[in-house]
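User: I've been trying to design a sequence by hand for this structure and keep getting stuck. Would you show me what you'd pick, starting by listing the structure so we're on the same page?

Assistant: Good idea, let's start from the same input. This is the structure you sent:
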């Protein structure tokens, strides 16, 4: 006996969905490359199986009945899920494509600068780039390689550390010019600090940063808090306070003169940048080549400290 004995004839569901969406049997037939008679027959077969009328027939179109509305919700959901799954399976077997899933910061600072060169070196490769604030561990997106700071929890991936980073205070040049030439961690806690609120235990916040230098948590509690690290840096550029910058992502803003490192205080973060590879299929050679490219870019030497970055504030 079938596990699903109450299912209607499956061959009727795609014609039904097209007729429901287009509200016309002829247009549904054209879309599906069927004859109009075949679509009408399939709909009639489905109505007979269910014992309900699904469409009111008019001369030039059809109008779904309330029963059709109920059925369409389930059919469209099921067909959509099947379509996504089959697309995923096809892409998994397509050696000429590569899907990258990256957190937004790494997509901007690490992937974007090398993607053009990698594409030119692999002109036959179709590259699909997905960037998101969503942790890799919770995403439903399918990808060939994922890039993320830290590890947010258990996951079904092979995790490969590919780079270090460091964290230090940054602000706009005009904000820095209003402050004393030398600042300690204790001095920092009295400034207007800009906070990022991420649901990640590994994200370095101001309390952790200051405590690592033997200083209590910030004394000011009225600073602005952001859900986006990039927006936090944007506000710091406008002279509204001091943010904690991750060296690799903040360096382009320092090079452009938009931000400066406020002190020499820095927190190294070893092996904090990771590549994620699905365990349920072999890793294609071009994905390994891409990881090697990123690793080479990340490991030419130690991450610059603020004093080495070329954007250190005036002394």
């Amino acid at each position: 006996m079938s596990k699903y004995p109450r299912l209607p004839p499956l061959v009727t569901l795609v014609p039904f969905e097209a007729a429901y969406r287009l509200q016309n049997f002829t247009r549904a037939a054209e879309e599906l490359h069927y004859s109009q008679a075949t679509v009408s027959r399939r709909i009639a077969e489905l109505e007979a199986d269910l014992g309900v009328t699904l469409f009111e027939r008019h001369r030039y179109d059809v109008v779904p009945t309330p029963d059709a509305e109920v059925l369409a919700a389930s059919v469209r959901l099921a067909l959509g899920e099947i379509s996504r799954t089959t697309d995923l399976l096809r892409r998994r077997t397509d050696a000429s494509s590569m899907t990258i899933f990256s957190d937004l910061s790494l997509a901007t600072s690490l992937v974007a600068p090398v993607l053009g060169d990698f594409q030119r070196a692999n002109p036959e490769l179709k590259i699909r780039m997905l960037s998101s604030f969503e942790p890799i561990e919770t995403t439903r997106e399918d990808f060939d390689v994922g890039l993320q700071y830290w590890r947010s929890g258990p996951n079904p991936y092979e995790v490969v550390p590919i780079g270090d980073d460091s964290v230090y205070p940054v602000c706009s040049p005009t904000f820095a010019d209003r402050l004393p030439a030398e600042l300690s961690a204790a001095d920092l806690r009295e400034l207007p600090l800009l906070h990022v609120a991420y649901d990640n235990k590994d994200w370095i916040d101001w309390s952790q940063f200051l405590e690592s230098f033997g200083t209590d948590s910030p004394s000011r509690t009225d600073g602005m808090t952001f859900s986006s690290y990039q927006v936090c840096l944007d506000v710091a550029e406008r002279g509204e306070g001091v943010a904690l910058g991750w060296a690799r992502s903040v360096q382009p803003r320092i090079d452009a003169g938009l931000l400066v490192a406020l002190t020499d205080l820095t927190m190294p973060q070893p092996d904090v940048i990771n590549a994620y590879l699905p365990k349920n299929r072999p890793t294609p050679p071009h994905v390994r080549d891409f990881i090697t490219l990123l690793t080479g870019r990340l490991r030419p030497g130690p991450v610059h400290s603020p004093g080495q970055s070329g954007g250190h504030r005036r002394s």
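That's my pick for every position. To get oriented when you compare it with your attempt: The chain has eleven helices and eleven strands. The two ends are 82 Å apart (CA to CA).
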